């Protein structure tokens, strides 16, 4: 199938609003019965007895790498054989510049009929539930009973389901066991053993660190994990920051203590490494940075990086326990991506049929495998397990995260004004804190101001 790449460009600064998330669905058994009856009316069969959904032509836009493109094109081809009255034209490319292109397309009404979106696009471009269609109205085509209701709520604005979650993700600890064995240090499990590791690594070689947290956004994620572990409440809830200035100071002081205790390198050190990402950093590749708190879907690239070292052979990466900083289980999960139907779609039933095929149909699930993460759909997870699809390292990492981390993530956490590099709030504040230009009191005030400004947008 010919690649049809979107060539539009530009950037939309979209107005966003904080919205209360309301429950979707209801009693699952009743919902399943209603869905089955409705499907009998809407989805007919062709002359060969094959099922078919909506009719017409649709475009489907997504970003990713070559393997995702190839798998998705194969799935589209299989889908059109199963539903011959629907023609799907793919539009895809790399991530670089993709969001800017799609935001312009959405604002101008020229977006694809079906889109792969990041979760925060619902908030960024949702326009109070008018940019994307309410997918509750297609529950007779999309089997919503396959998805956790609380996650569907996270994809809703004012009760309107703006997207169907593809997968959930969160962060966990990965450790280079080879380096820890060389240093003669146990892999940390709590605050005390983490600082003990910092001491032993410094004694071994001042260029070695048990943990690396290499940017403002990553440090923010780690600090929130610490605070949630200690205080047992989400960072933001219902559009309001849940932590006091004193509590945030505690988190920031902890981050400074990690640097002073040689647990993590300063940001000046990591900036000086001149690496685009940790997996490409020679200090990670050679085991000098021996641990990281990162997204579960990065486990393969982090492990592959150390295996490719030409200086240190046979390094082993292990997934560690979640560090105990308090009596609570810190850490959040978030929807990694979703499928949505823009309100400009002319054949929404056809688009809904494609969504259900990719997420709930065994054929579509098997073809796409884990190209968009571990399926959140119960049907998808079942096919992955039965067929033994994907890399078991990814599956284990995702299961560990979802079993441990229970706090929700507010979509504004990833807003551009907070997350952007180098001018975002996180980068500026943690940069000044690491450089000694801010103390914890100053950093806490600046962080609170930045968070509240983002929440008010």
Quick gist of this model?
With 457 residues, the chain is α+β, with helices and mostly antiparallel strands.
Question: Can you give a write-up of this model?
Answer:
The protein has 457 residues and is α+β, with helices and mostly antiparallel strands. The chain is built from 19 helices and 13 strands. The strands form four sheets. Strands 3, 4, 5, 8, 11, 12 and 13 form a seven-stranded mixed beta sheet that branches. The two termini are 42 Å apart.
Structure class: alpha+beta
Straight-line N-to-C gap: 42 Å
- Characterize the main sheet: 7 strands, mixed
Quaternary structure of the protein: single chain
Q: What percent of residues are in strands?
A: 5-15%
Poorly predicted spans: 1-52
Radius of gyration: 23 Å
**How many distinct beta strands?**
13
Overall shape: globular
State the helicity in percent bands: 40-55%
Please report the number of helical segments: 19
The chain-level mean pLDDT equals 89
């Amino acid at each position: 199938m010919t690649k049809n790449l979107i060539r539009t460009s530009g950037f939309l600064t979209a107005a966003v609003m904080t919205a209360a998330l309301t429950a979707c669905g209801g009693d699952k058994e009743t919902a399943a019965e209603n869905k089955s009856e409705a499907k009998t009316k809407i989805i007919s069969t062709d002359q060969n007895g094959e099922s078919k959904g909506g009719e017409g032509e649709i475009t489907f836009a997504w970003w990713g790498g070559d393997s995702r493109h190839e798998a998705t094109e194969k799935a589209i081809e299989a889908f059109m054989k199963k539903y011959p009255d629907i023609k799907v034209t793919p539009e895809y490319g790399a991530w670089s510049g993709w969001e800017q292109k799609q935001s312009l397309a959405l604002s101008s009404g020229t977006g694809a009929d079906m889109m792969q979106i990041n979760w925060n696009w619902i908030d960024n471009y949702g326009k109070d539930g008018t940019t994307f269609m309410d997918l509750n109205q297609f529950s007779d085509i999309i089997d919503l009973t396959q998805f956790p209701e609380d996650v569907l709520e996270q994809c809703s604005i004012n009760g309107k389901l703006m997207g169907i979650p593809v997968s959930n993700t969160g962060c966990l600890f990965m450790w280079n066991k080879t380096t820890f064995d060389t240093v003669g240090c146990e892999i940390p499990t709590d605050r005390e053993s983490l600082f003990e590791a910092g001491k032993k690594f410094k004694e071994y070689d001042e260029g070695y660190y048990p943990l690396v947290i290499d940017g403002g956004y990553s440090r923010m994620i780690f600090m929130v994990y610490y605070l949630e572990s200690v205080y047992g409440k989400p960072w933001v809830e219902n559009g309001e920051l849940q932590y006091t200035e004193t509590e945030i100071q505690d988190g920031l002081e902890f981050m400074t203590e990690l640097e002073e205790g040689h647990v993590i390198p300063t940001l000046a050190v990591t900036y000086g490494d001149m690496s685009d990402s940790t997996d490409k950093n020679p200090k990670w590749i050679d085991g000098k940075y021996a641990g990281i708190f990162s997204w579960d879907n990065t486990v393969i690239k982090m492990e592959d990086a150390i295996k490719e070292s030409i200086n240190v052979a046979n390094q082993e990466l292990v997934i560690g326990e979640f560090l105990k900083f308090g009596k609570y289980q810190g850490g959040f999960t978030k929807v990694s991506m979703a499928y949505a139907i823009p309100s400009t779609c002319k054949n929404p039933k056809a688009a809904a049929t494609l969504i259900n095929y990719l997420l709930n149909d065994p054929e579509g699930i098997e073809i796409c495998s884990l190209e968009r993460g571990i399926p959140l759909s119960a049907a998808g997870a079942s096919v992955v397990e039965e067929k033994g699809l994907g890399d078991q390292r990814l599956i284990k990492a995702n299961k560990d995260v979802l079993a441990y981390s229970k706090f929700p993530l507010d979509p504004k956490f990833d807003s551009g004004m907070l997350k952007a590099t180098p001018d975002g709030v996180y980068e500026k504040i943690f940069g000044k804190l690491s450089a000694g230009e801010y103390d914890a009191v100053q950093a806490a005030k600046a962080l609170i101001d930045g968070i509240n400004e983002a929440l008010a947008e």
